[in-house]
Amino acid sequence: QVKLVESGGGSVEEGGSLRLSCVASGYTYNRNYMAWFRQAPGQEREGVAGIAADGMTRYTESVKGRFTISKDNAKHTLYLQMNQLKPEDTAMYYCAAASYPLFSDVAFYPPDDWGQGTQVTVSS
User: Fold this and answer.
1) Tens of pLDDT along the chain (124 residues)?
2) Which residues pair with 38 in a beta bridge?
């Protein structure tokens, strides 16, 4: 069993920044692939950024150049630095972990484990 706990969400004005964190605990030894997903009201959950075991990253087109995913393996923590935030970034953000790749060149895939989510609200 893996537990993922997100933090760092909040309310900011357009153009502001937030840094999300996700601490993993429990049976994490093979959870080498991690990602951030988000879900806005009335919309499907979508992949935002992913990072593989070798450090390779992928971003959805709408956040490229503004968001950066990273991880600290020693701290079992995943991060998402979000800059130049826009109102359309408003959503619940979820941390995800898996023992298999969570993304390809064309898509993100559902993980083994989900966090409980942290809310990000961007006002114009």
Assistant:
1) 899 999 999 999 999 999 999 999 998 888 889 999 999 999 999 999 999 989 999 999 999 999 999 999 999 999 999 999 999 999 999 999 999 999 999 899 999 999 999 999 999 9
2) 46, 93
State the SS3 of 53-112. CCCCEEECHHHCCCEEEEEEHHHCEEEEEECCCCHHHCEEEEEEEECCCCECCCCECCCC
Residue type, 119: Q
d(CA 54, CA 33): 9
Retrieve residue 117's tokens. Answer: 């989510």
Question: What percent of the chain is helix, strand and coil (3-state, nearest 5)?
Answer: 5, 50, 40
Task: Quote the CA–CA distance of 91 and 104 in Å, as a whole number.
Answer: 23
The position carrying tokens 């809310």 is 119
